[in-house]
Amino acid sequence: MIAVIKNGTTTAQIQHLVDWLKHMDLDVHISAGKEVTILGLIGDTSRVDMELLGSLEIVESVKRVSEPFKQANRKFHPNDTVITVGDAKIGGGHFGMIAGPCSVENEEQIIGVALAVKASGANILRGGAFKPRTSPYAFQGLKDEGIHLLLKAKEASGLPIITEIMNISALDLFADVDIIQVGARNMQNFDLLKELGKTKKPILLKRGLANTLQELLMSAEYIMSEGNENVILCERGIRTFETSTRNTLDLSAVSVLHELSHLPVVVDPSHATGKSRLVTPMACAAAAAGADGIMVEVHNNPACALCDGAQSLTPAQYDVLCDKVRKIREAIR
User: Fold this and answer.
1) Is 200 helix (H, G, I), strand (E, B) or coil?
2) Eight-state DSSP code of residue 172
3) Chain-centre distance for alpha carbon 240
4) CB 127 within 8 A of CB 146
5) Cα–Cα dist 149/110, whole Å
6) Which of 12, 90, 142, 193 is at a distance of 20 to 30 A from 72, taking alpha carbons?
7) pTM for this one?
8) Tens digit of pLDDT for each residue in 227-285?
9) In b/e form, how buried is each residue of 82-94, taking b as 16+ CB within 10 angstroms?
10) Distance, C-alpha 67 to centroid of its chain
């Protein structure tokens, strides 16, 4: 349920109403926009008398929210959420350029890529320390050493870093990581999501391989229900019957998610296509569709990469991608 507050209402009047609602064992989410303030009521709202609430002098209107996701819902929070990490911002007209190798392999590699992608325009460095692989015999990442090397690359480049967490037990290792990524396979690992909700770190939540957009938003709700509102949604392709690409990139998700939610939406064309030659056109399409950022895999020598070399761009190719994305964003602005 949401209550729209009339313009000119004082902070003290709003707080008095919030206190009254909390006495009914409801959580109250306050969204103070430029033109309107909205109170989002979370919990058993059946005990709230809508007519009584709507008759209050400071209340403009009262509506029930039918969707199961509440805090991620744009009805609760009409203005776009902006996530800030270091000097980078994502959402609300700010564009995140996230780039780096699939896996951190050694110090020279990660620092070299970090400096290269920053020169091209990237504002966030990605790199896998823990790698979920289909085969148990494939490279699983450098783990805590990988995070250590990412921090060295952050120091050398000045870029904030993002890396993927696999399970709750490793959470302490992410103390200095700027954005924690939840991969597609863990999108519905609800115990992990609730623990991440107890942190204040930005969380990039990837859509599962066979999950609906509502299921993605419900996973975001798990994080937000624990108090962490710093969630970034990521479309990375879904599994369909098509075999010419690794997955099928659902660019309509960008517009649908923007309609349903205030959370920023980024697109990962690398995992979606699985082929480096398709990454740049799909990144451009994502920018044209209104995405709030693009996450691209870049490796200094893709042919020798320990993980996902086939979908990785070289630094030179990434430079071309950045130039094209900039031009598209200028054209649609």
Assistant:
1) coil
2) G
3) 23
4) yes
5) 7
6) 12
7) 0.91
8) 999 999 999 999 999 999 999 999 999 999 999 999 999 999 999 999 999 999 999 99
9) ebebeebbbbeeb
10) 20
